[in-house]
Write a structure and sequence with these properties.
- This protein is 38% helix and 20% strand.
- The protein is α/β, with parallel strands linked by helices.
- The chain folds into 2 domains: 110 residues, Arc Repressor Mutant, subunit A (Orthogonal Bundle); 340 residues, tm_1862 like domain (pyruvate-formate lyase- activating enzyme, Alpha-Beta Horseshoe), CATH 3.80.30.20.
- The chain has a 9-stranded mixed sheet with strand order 9-10-8-7-6-5-4-1-13, sandwiched between helices. A 3-stranded antiparallel sheet has the order 14-15-16, with helices on one face. The chain has a 3-stranded antiparallel sheet with strand order 17-19-18.
- α4 packs parallel to α5 and α5 packs parallel to α7.
Length: 454
Protein backbone atom coordinates (compact mmCIF):
# COMPACT_ATOMS: atom_id res chain seq x y z
CA UNK A 1 0.00 0.00 0.00
CA UNK A 2 1.30 3.43 -1.00
CA UNK A 3 2.57 5.12 2.17
CA UNK A 4 1.81 8.55 0.72
CA UNK A 5 -1.83 7.60 0.23
CA UNK A 6 -2.05 6.32 3.79
CA UNK A 7 -0.68 9.61 5.13
CA UNK A 8 -3.00 11.58 2.86
CA UNK A 9 -6.26 9.80 3.67
CA UNK A 10 -5.75 8.53 7.22
CA UNK A 11 -8.19 10.89 8.87
CA UNK A 12 -10.87 10.52 11.53
CA UNK A 13 -14.09 9.15 10.09
CA UNK A 14 -17.17 7.00 10.82
CA UNK A 15 -17.36 3.22 10.39
CA UNK A 16 -20.83 3.54 8.84
CA UNK A 17 -22.80 0.91 10.69
CA UNK A 18 -25.57 3.46 10.16
CA UNK A 19 -26.37 6.62 8.25
CA UNK A 20 -26.70 9.15 9.72
CA UNK A 21 -24.02 8.09 12.19
CA UNK A 22 -24.96 8.35 15.86
CA UNK A 23 -23.19 11.69 16.60
CA UNK A 24 -25.33 13.33 13.91
CA UNK A 25 -28.69 12.03 14.96
CA UNK A 26 -31.22 14.79 15.50
CA UNK A 27 -30.29 16.53 18.76
CA UNK A 28 -33.98 16.75 19.67
CA UNK A 29 -34.11 12.96 19.46
CA UNK A 30 -37.18 11.12 18.26
CA UNK A 31 -40.66 11.47 19.68
CA UNK A 32 -41.82 8.32 21.48
CA UNK A 33 -44.95 8.04 19.32
CA UNK A 34 -42.91 8.55 16.15
CA UNK A 35 -40.66 5.64 17.08
CA UNK A 36 -43.67 3.41 17.73
CA UNK A 37 -45.25 4.44 14.40
CA UNK A 38 -41.97 3.68 12.64
CA UNK A 39 -41.65 0.24 14.25
CA UNK A 40 -45.24 -0.72 13.43
CA UNK A 41 -44.86 0.47 9.83
CA UNK A 42 -41.68 -1.56 9.33
CA UNK A 43 -43.22 -4.61 11.00
CA UNK A 44 -46.30 -4.51 8.77
CA UNK A 45 -44.14 -4.11 5.65
CA UNK A 46 -41.65 -6.88 6.36
CA UNK A 47 -42.74 -9.38 9.00
CA UNK A 48 -44.53 -11.77 6.65
CA UNK A 49 -42.11 -11.43 3.73
CA UNK A 50 -38.67 -11.51 5.37
CA UNK A 51 -39.16 -11.62 9.13
CA UNK A 52 -37.39 -9.46 11.71
CA UNK A 53 -34.02 -9.49 13.45
CA UNK A 54 -33.46 -9.25 17.19
CA UNK A 55 -30.22 -8.10 18.76
CA UNK A 56 -29.98 -8.78 22.50
CA UNK A 57 -27.30 -6.94 24.44
CA UNK A 58 -25.96 -8.90 27.41
CA UNK A 59 -23.64 -6.32 28.98
CA UNK A 60 -21.91 -8.08 31.86
CA UNK A 61 -18.20 -9.00 31.92
CA UNK A 62 -16.15 -10.34 34.78
CA UNK A 63 -13.04 -8.38 33.72
CA UNK A 64 -12.32 -5.20 31.77
CA UNK A 65 -10.55 -5.72 28.45
CA UNK A 66 -8.88 -2.36 27.98
CA UNK A 67 -9.13 -2.31 24.16
CA UNK A 68 -12.92 -2.74 24.27
CA UNK A 69 -15.28 -0.05 23.01
CA UNK A 70 -18.53 -1.80 23.99
CA UNK A 71 -21.08 -0.66 26.56
CA UNK A 72 -20.55 -3.08 29.44
CA UNK A 73 -20.88 -3.55 33.20
CA UNK A 74 -17.94 -5.17 34.99
CA UNK A 75 -19.02 -7.47 37.81
CA UNK A 76 -18.35 -10.92 39.22
CA UNK A 77 -21.80 -11.04 40.84
CA UNK A 78 -23.85 -13.48 38.78
CA UNK A 79 -26.95 -12.63 40.77
CA UNK A 80 -27.48 -9.89 38.15
CA UNK A 81 -28.37 -12.47 35.48
CA UNK A 82 -31.97 -13.36 36.27
CA UNK A 83 -33.27 -9.80 36.95
CA UNK A 84 -31.69 -8.58 33.72
CA UNK A 85 -33.25 -11.37 31.66
CA UNK A 86 -36.64 -10.69 33.22
CA UNK A 87 -36.31 -7.05 32.16
CA UNK A 88 -35.32 -7.95 28.59
CA UNK A 89 -38.38 -10.19 28.31
CA UNK A 90 -40.60 -7.40 29.63
CA UNK A 91 -39.17 -5.09 26.95
CA UNK A 92 -39.93 -7.74 24.30
CA UNK A 93 -43.50 -7.92 25.66
CA UNK A 94 -43.89 -4.17 25.11
CA UNK A 95 -42.85 -4.53 21.48
CA UNK A 96 -45.06 -7.58 20.90
CA UNK A 97 -48.08 -5.69 22.25
CA UNK A 98 -47.61 -3.17 19.40
CA UNK A 99 -48.03 -5.84 16.72
CA UNK A 100 -51.28 -7.36 15.48
CA UNK A 101 -49.56 -10.57 14.37
CA UNK A 102 -46.94 -12.89 15.77
CA UNK A 103 -43.42 -11.76 14.88
CA UNK A 104 -41.56 -14.00 12.44
CA UNK A 105 -37.96 -14.09 13.63
CA UNK A 106 -35.28 -14.50 10.98
CA UNK A 107 -32.28 -13.63 13.10
CA UNK A 108 -31.30 -13.50 16.76
CA UNK A 109 -27.86 -12.33 17.77
CA UNK A 110 -26.54 -12.26 21.34
CA UNK A 111 -23.89 -9.59 21.80
CA UNK A 112 -22.04 -8.04 24.69
CA UNK A 113 -20.43 -7.53 27.04
CA UNK A 114 -20.02 -11.25 27.37
CA UNK A 115 -23.12 -13.33 26.54
CA UNK A 116 -21.50 -16.46 27.99
CA UNK A 117 -21.22 -14.61 31.32
CA UNK A 118 -24.80 -15.90 31.73
CA UNK A 119 -25.25 -19.51 32.77
CA UNK A 120 -26.75 -21.86 30.16
CA UNK A 121 -30.09 -22.22 31.99
CA UNK A 122 -30.62 -18.45 32.09
CA UNK A 123 -29.77 -18.14 28.38
CA UNK A 124 -32.26 -20.92 27.70
CA UNK A 125 -34.96 -19.06 29.64
CA UNK A 126 -34.19 -15.89 27.71
CA UNK A 127 -34.44 -17.46 24.24
CA UNK A 128 -37.49 -19.55 25.09
CA UNK A 129 -39.14 -16.42 26.46
CA UNK A 130 -38.49 -14.58 23.18
CA UNK A 131 -39.73 -17.48 21.05
CA UNK A 132 -42.86 -18.04 23.13
CA UNK A 133 -44.36 -14.97 21.49
CA UNK A 134 -42.97 -15.51 18.00
CA UNK A 135 -42.45 -17.95 15.16
CA UNK A 136 -39.12 -18.81 13.53
CA UNK A 137 -38.66 -18.22 9.81
CA UNK A 138 -37.74 -21.32 7.81
CA UNK A 139 -34.32 -19.82 7.09
CA UNK A 140 -33.68 -18.45 10.59
CA UNK A 141 -30.12 -17.80 11.76
CA UNK A 142 -29.23 -17.58 15.44
CA UNK A 143 -25.73 -16.50 16.47
CA UNK A 144 -23.84 -15.38 19.55
CA UNK A 145 -20.56 -13.84 20.64
CA UNK A 146 -18.48 -15.70 23.22
CA UNK A 147 -15.42 -15.22 25.38
CA UNK A 148 -13.36 -18.42 25.10
CA UNK A 149 -12.23 -18.18 28.73
CA UNK A 150 -15.72 -18.60 30.15
CA UNK A 151 -17.51 -20.57 27.43
CA UNK A 152 -18.22 -24.11 28.55
CA UNK A 153 -19.29 -27.13 26.53
CA UNK A 154 -22.59 -26.85 28.38
CA UNK A 155 -23.02 -23.32 26.98
CA UNK A 156 -22.34 -24.51 23.45
CA UNK A 157 -24.69 -27.49 23.70
CA UNK A 158 -27.52 -25.47 25.27
CA UNK A 159 -27.33 -22.78 22.57
CA UNK A 160 -27.13 -25.40 19.82
CA UNK A 161 -30.25 -27.08 21.21
CA UNK A 162 -32.01 -23.69 21.03
CA UNK A 163 -31.26 -23.42 17.31
CA UNK A 164 -27.96 -21.50 17.31
CA UNK A 165 -25.63 -22.62 14.53
CA UNK A 166 -23.14 -19.74 14.35
CA UNK A 167 -20.81 -18.47 17.05
CA UNK A 168 -18.04 -15.91 17.20
CA UNK A 169 -15.05 -16.09 19.55
CA UNK A 170 -13.07 -13.00 20.50
CA UNK A 171 -9.38 -13.85 20.01
CA UNK A 172 -7.74 -10.46 19.29
CA UNK A 173 -4.05 -11.54 19.43
CA UNK A 174 -2.05 -14.42 20.92
CA UNK A 175 1.09 -12.43 21.78
CA UNK A 176 1.57 -12.54 25.61
CA UNK A 177 2.75 -8.91 25.80
CA UNK A 178 -0.25 -7.67 23.81
CA UNK A 179 -2.63 -9.80 25.87
CA UNK A 180 -1.24 -8.47 29.14
CA UNK A 181 -1.51 -4.86 27.96
CA UNK A 182 -5.15 -5.21 26.89
CA UNK A 183 -5.96 -7.35 29.96
CA UNK A 184 -7.10 -10.29 27.85
CA UNK A 185 -5.00 -13.30 28.89
CA UNK A 186 -6.26 -16.07 26.64
CA UNK A 187 -4.10 -19.06 25.65
CA UNK A 188 -4.40 -20.62 22.20
CA UNK A 189 -5.31 -23.92 23.87
CA UNK A 190 -8.47 -22.33 25.30
CA UNK A 191 -9.60 -21.08 21.91
CA UNK A 192 -8.81 -24.47 20.34
CA UNK A 193 -10.89 -26.21 23.00
CA UNK A 194 -14.06 -24.16 22.41
CA UNK A 195 -13.57 -24.39 18.63
CA UNK A 196 -13.21 -28.18 18.78
CA UNK A 197 -16.29 -28.44 20.98
CA UNK A 198 -18.26 -26.29 18.52
CA UNK A 199 -17.31 -28.53 15.59
CA UNK A 200 -18.06 -31.66 17.60
CA UNK A 201 -21.52 -30.39 18.58
CA UNK A 202 -22.36 -29.41 15.00
CA UNK A 203 -22.04 -25.63 14.59
CA UNK A 204 -22.01 -24.83 10.87
CA UNK A 205 -20.32 -21.42 11.02
CA UNK A 206 -17.56 -20.59 13.48
CA UNK A 207 -16.08 -17.11 13.46
CA UNK A 208 -13.09 -15.57 15.20
CA UNK A 209 -12.34 -11.91 15.84
CA UNK A 210 -8.77 -10.69 15.35
CA UNK A 211 -7.67 -7.10 15.88
CA UNK A 212 -4.77 -5.21 14.30
CA UNK A 213 -3.31 -1.98 15.64
CA UNK A 214 -3.25 -3.04 19.30
CA UNK A 215 -0.56 -1.76 21.67
CA UNK A 216 2.83 -3.50 21.25
CA UNK A 217 1.53 -5.45 18.27
CA UNK A 218 4.10 -6.27 15.59
CA UNK A 219 4.16 -7.86 12.18
CA UNK A 220 5.61 -10.98 13.81
CA UNK A 221 2.76 -11.21 16.33
CA UNK A 222 0.15 -10.86 13.56
CA UNK A 223 1.84 -13.65 11.59
CA UNK A 224 1.97 -15.87 14.69
CA UNK A 225 -1.69 -15.17 15.54
CA UNK A 226 -2.94 -16.00 12.04
CA UNK A 227 -0.70 -19.08 11.82
CA UNK A 228 -2.37 -20.35 15.00
CA UNK A 229 -5.78 -19.38 13.64
CA UNK A 230 -5.00 -21.39 10.48
CA UNK A 231 -4.87 -24.55 12.57
CA UNK A 232 -8.48 -23.97 13.72
CA UNK A 233 -9.78 -22.97 10.25
CA UNK A 234 -12.81 -20.87 11.30
CA UNK A 235 -15.43 -20.25 8.60
CA UNK A 236 -15.26 -16.48 9.08
CA UNK A 237 -12.66 -14.11 10.42
CA UNK A 238 -13.31 -10.53 11.44
CA UNK A 239 -9.96 -8.74 11.13
CA UNK A 240 -10.74 -5.43 12.79
CA UNK A 241 -8.80 -2.22 13.02
CA UNK A 242 -8.43 -1.22 16.66
CA UNK A 243 -10.31 2.01 17.28
CA UNK A 244 -8.37 4.08 19.81
CA UNK A 245 -10.93 6.53 21.19
CA UNK A 246 -10.07 7.03 24.89
CA UNK A 247 -11.87 10.39 24.89
CA UNK A 248 -15.08 8.38 24.35
CA UNK A 249 -14.36 5.06 26.06
CA UNK A 250 -12.61 6.45 29.11
CA UNK A 251 -10.29 4.81 31.58
CA UNK A 252 -9.96 1.43 29.84
CA UNK A 253 -8.23 2.76 26.73
CA UNK A 254 -6.06 5.05 28.84
CA UNK A 255 -4.31 2.04 30.36
CA UNK A 256 -1.41 2.40 27.93
CA UNK A 257 0.41 5.21 26.20
CA UNK A 258 -0.41 6.13 22.60
CA UNK A 259 3.30 5.65 21.88
CA UNK A 260 2.67 1.94 22.48
CA UNK A 261 0.39 1.85 19.42
CA UNK A 262 1.67 1.13 15.91
CA UNK A 263 1.97 4.18 13.64
CA UNK A 264 -0.47 4.51 10.73
CA UNK A 265 2.13 3.03 8.36
CA UNK A 266 2.95 0.17 10.76
CA UNK A 267 -0.74 -0.49 11.31
CA UNK A 268 -1.31 -0.76 7.57
CA UNK A 269 1.57 -3.24 7.33
CA UNK A 270 -0.16 -5.33 9.98
CA UNK A 271 -3.34 -5.32 7.90
CA UNK A 272 -1.63 -6.04 4.59
CA UNK A 273 0.39 -8.85 6.16
CA UNK A 274 -2.69 -10.43 7.70
CA UNK A 275 -4.74 -9.97 4.54
CA UNK A 276 -2.11 -11.68 2.40
CA UNK A 277 -1.90 -14.68 4.72
CA UNK A 278 -5.69 -14.98 4.88
CA UNK A 279 -5.85 -14.76 1.09
CA UNK A 280 -3.26 -17.53 0.81
CA UNK A 281 -5.40 -19.65 3.16
CA UNK A 282 -8.46 -19.30 0.93
CA UNK A 283 -10.32 -16.54 2.79
CA UNK A 284 -12.04 -13.90 0.66
CA UNK A 285 -12.28 -10.29 1.84
CA UNK A 286 -15.93 -9.38 2.45
CA UNK A 287 -16.72 -5.68 2.62
CA UNK A 288 -14.53 -4.01 5.26
CA UNK A 289 -12.78 -5.99 8.02
CA UNK A 290 -14.38 -9.35 7.23
CA UNK A 291 -13.06 -12.52 5.58
CA UNK A 292 -14.86 -15.78 4.83
CA UNK A 293 -14.29 -19.12 3.20
CA UNK A 294 -16.16 -19.65 -0.06
CA UNK A 295 -18.34 -22.24 1.67
CA UNK A 296 -19.71 -19.64 4.13
CA UNK A 297 -23.02 -17.82 3.70
CA UNK A 298 -21.35 -14.42 4.01
CA UNK A 299 -19.27 -15.07 0.90
CA UNK A 300 -22.38 -16.25 -0.91
CA UNK A 301 -24.23 -13.09 0.16
CA UNK A 302 -21.41 -10.95 -1.27
CA UNK A 303 -21.53 -12.88 -4.55
CA UNK A 304 -25.32 -12.51 -4.73
CA UNK A 305 -25.15 -8.82 -3.75
CA UNK A 306 -27.39 -9.45 -0.73
CA UNK A 307 -24.75 -8.53 1.85
CA UNK A 308 -26.11 -6.12 4.45
CA UNK A 309 -24.55 -3.87 7.09
CA UNK A 310 -26.11 -2.63 10.31
CA UNK A 311 -25.17 -1.98 13.93
CA UNK A 312 -24.03 -5.61 14.25
CA UNK A 313 -21.62 -5.18 11.33
CA UNK A 314 -21.94 -7.21 8.13
CA UNK A 315 -24.74 -9.74 7.86
CA UNK A 316 -25.60 -12.38 5.28
CA UNK A 317 -29.30 -11.99 6.07
CA UNK A 318 -31.03 -8.65 5.64
CA UNK A 319 -34.18 -7.63 7.44
CA UNK A 320 -35.84 -4.24 7.31
CA UNK A 321 -36.64 -4.28 11.01
CA UNK A 322 -34.04 -4.96 13.69
CA UNK A 323 -35.21 -4.68 17.28
CA UNK A 324 -32.50 -4.12 19.87
CA UNK A 325 -33.29 -5.43 23.35
CA UNK A 326 -31.30 -4.71 26.48
CA UNK A 327 -29.23 -1.86 27.87
CA UNK A 328 -27.74 0.42 25.16
CA UNK A 329 -29.10 -1.66 22.26
CA UNK A 330 -29.92 0.16 19.04
CA UNK A 331 -33.01 -0.63 16.98
CA UNK A 332 -33.41 0.09 13.26
CA UNK A 333 -36.76 0.25 11.43
CA UNK A 334 -35.05 1.52 8.23
CA UNK A 335 -37.04 4.74 8.64
CA UNK A 336 -35.67 5.52 12.11
CA UNK A 337 -33.10 4.56 14.74
CA UNK A 338 -33.53 4.42 18.51
CA UNK A 339 -31.04 3.58 21.25
CA UNK A 340 -31.87 2.25 24.70
CA UNK A 341 -30.67 3.80 27.93
CA UNK A 342 -26.98 3.15 28.59
CA UNK A 343 -27.20 2.13 32.24
CA UNK A 344 -28.77 -1.04 33.61
CA UNK A 345 -30.56 0.95 36.30
CA UNK A 346 -32.28 3.46 34.00
CA UNK A 347 -33.04 0.78 31.42
CA UNK A 348 -34.71 -1.38 34.10
CA UNK A 349 -36.62 1.53 35.59
CA UNK A 350 -38.19 2.54 32.26
CA UNK A 351 -39.11 -1.00 31.25
CA UNK A 352 -40.74 -1.61 34.63
CA UNK A 353 -42.90 1.45 33.94
CA UNK A 354 -44.12 -0.22 30.77
CA UNK A 355 -42.14 2.09 28.48
CA UNK A 356 -39.73 1.34 25.66
CA UNK A 357 -36.42 2.46 27.27
CA UNK A 358 -35.17 4.69 24.43
CA UNK A 359 -33.14 7.77 25.30
CA UNK A 360 -32.22 9.04 21.84
CA UNK A 361 -32.99 8.37 18.20
CA UNK A 362 -33.28 9.76 14.71
CA UNK A 363 -36.15 9.89 12.21
CA UNK A 364 -34.63 9.72 8.73
CA UNK A 365 -35.62 12.30 6.13
CA UNK A 366 -36.23 11.32 2.50
CA UNK A 367 -32.73 12.55 1.66
CA UNK A 368 -31.25 10.58 4.59
CA UNK A 369 -32.83 7.42 3.15
CA UNK A 370 -31.33 7.97 -0.32
CA UNK A 371 -27.85 8.66 1.05
CA UNK A 372 -28.17 5.69 3.38
CA UNK A 373 -28.71 3.45 0.33
CA UNK A 374 -25.61 4.86 -1.40
CA UNK A 375 -23.42 4.36 1.67
CA UNK A 376 -24.73 0.82 2.17
CA UNK A 377 -23.96 0.04 -1.49
CA UNK A 378 -20.42 1.37 -1.16
CA UNK A 379 -19.75 -0.39 2.16
CA UNK A 380 -21.20 -3.73 1.03
CA UNK A 381 -20.51 -3.87 -2.71
CA UNK A 382 -17.82 -1.18 -3.31
CA UNK A 383 -20.06 0.49 -5.87
CA UNK A 384 -23.23 2.52 -6.18
CA UNK A 385 -25.39 3.91 -8.96
CA UNK A 386 -27.75 6.82 -9.52
CA UNK A 387 -29.28 5.65 -12.81
CA UNK A 388 -32.59 5.29 -11.00
CA UNK A 389 -34.05 8.75 -10.42
CA UNK A 390 -34.98 7.66 -6.89
CA UNK A 391 -31.24 7.41 -6.10
CA UNK A 392 -30.55 11.04 -7.04
CA UNK A 393 -30.49 13.94 -4.60
CA UNK A 394 -29.74 17.69 -4.98
CA UNK A 395 -26.20 17.57 -3.56
CA UNK A 396 -25.03 14.58 -5.63
CA UNK A 397 -22.80 16.69 -7.90
CA UNK A 398 -21.16 18.26 -4.84
CA UNK A 399 -20.52 14.80 -3.37
CA UNK A 400 -18.80 13.67 -6.58
CA UNK A 401 -16.74 16.86 -6.65
CA UNK A 402 -15.36 15.91 -3.24
CA UNK A 403 -14.10 12.66 -4.78
CA UNK A 404 -12.05 14.37 -7.50
CA UNK A 405 -8.78 13.96 -5.61
CA UNK A 406 -9.47 10.30 -4.85
CA UNK A 407 -10.33 9.75 -8.51
CA UNK A 408 -6.96 11.25 -9.52
CA UNK A 409 -5.27 8.93 -7.04
CA UNK A 410 -6.95 5.91 -8.64
CA UNK A 411 -9.10 5.13 -5.59
CA UNK A 412 -12.51 5.59 -7.21
CA UNK A 413 -13.81 5.25 -10.76
CA UNK A 414 -16.71 7.60 -11.56
CA UNK A 415 -18.97 7.35 -14.60
CA UNK A 416 -22.12 9.21 -15.63
CA UNK A 417 -24.28 6.65 -13.87
CA UNK A 418 -22.30 5.50 -10.85
CA UNK A 419 -18.99 4.82 -9.15
CA UNK A 420 -16.84 1.81 -8.34
CA UNK A 421 -13.89 1.25 -6.02
CA UNK A 422 -11.04 -0.80 -7.52
CA UNK A 423 -9.65 -3.51 -5.26
CA UNK A 424 -6.65 -1.42 -4.17
CA UNK A 425 -9.07 1.23 -2.85
CA UNK A 426 -10.90 -1.02 -0.40
CA UNK A 427 -8.90 0.19 2.62
CA UNK A 428 -10.19 3.71 1.78
CA UNK A 429 -13.88 2.79 1.59
CA UNK A 430 -14.76 4.92 4.64
CA UNK A 431 -13.18 7.95 2.96
CA UNK A 432 -15.38 7.46 -0.12
CA UNK A 433 -18.49 7.22 2.05
CA UNK A 434 -17.52 10.45 3.81
CA UNK A 435 -17.94 12.31 0.50
CA UNK A 436 -21.64 11.35 0.59
CA UNK A 437 -22.10 12.06 4.29
CA UNK A 438 -24.03 15.33 4.22
CA UNK A 439 -24.56 15.26 7.99
CA UNK A 440 -20.79 15.12 8.56
CA UNK A 441 -20.13 17.82 5.95
CA UNK A 442 -22.84 20.20 7.16
CA UNK A 443 -22.09 19.68 10.88
CA UNK A 444 -18.33 19.26 10.82
CA UNK A 445 -17.27 18.31 14.37
CA UNK A 446 -14.95 20.71 16.16
CA UNK A 447 -13.49 17.89 18.30
CA UNK A 448 -12.34 14.41 17.33
CA UNK A 449 -15.19 11.94 17.70
CA UNK A 450 -14.20 9.12 15.32
CA UNK A 451 -11.34 6.67 14.98
CA UNK A 452 -8.86 6.96 12.08
CA UNK A 453 -10.07 5.55 8.77
CA UNK A 454 -6.97 3.49 7.94
Amino acid sequence: MDTNLIQKYNIAGPRYTSYPTVPFWNKAGIAYDSWIDSIVKAFNESNQSEGISIYIHLPFCENLCTFCGCHKRITKQHSVEQPYIETVLKEWDIYCDLFDKKPHIKEIHLGGGTPTFFNPKNIENLINGILSKAEKCNDFEFSFEAHPNNTTKEHLQALYDLGFRRNSFGVQDYDPKVQKTINRIQPFETVKQVTDWSKEIGYTSISQDLVFGLPHQTRESIIDTIEKTKELKPDRIAFYSYAHVPWIKGVGQRGYDENDLPSAEEKRVLYETGKQILDDLGYVEIGMDHFALKTDSMYQAMENKTLHRNFMGYSASKTQLMIGLGMSSISDSWYAFAQNSKTVEEYTQLVNKGQLPIFRGHLLSEEDLVIRKHILNIMCHFETSWTDEAMQFPELAECLERLTEMERDGLVEITVNGLTLPEKARPFVRNVCMAFDLQLIQNKPTTRIFSMTI
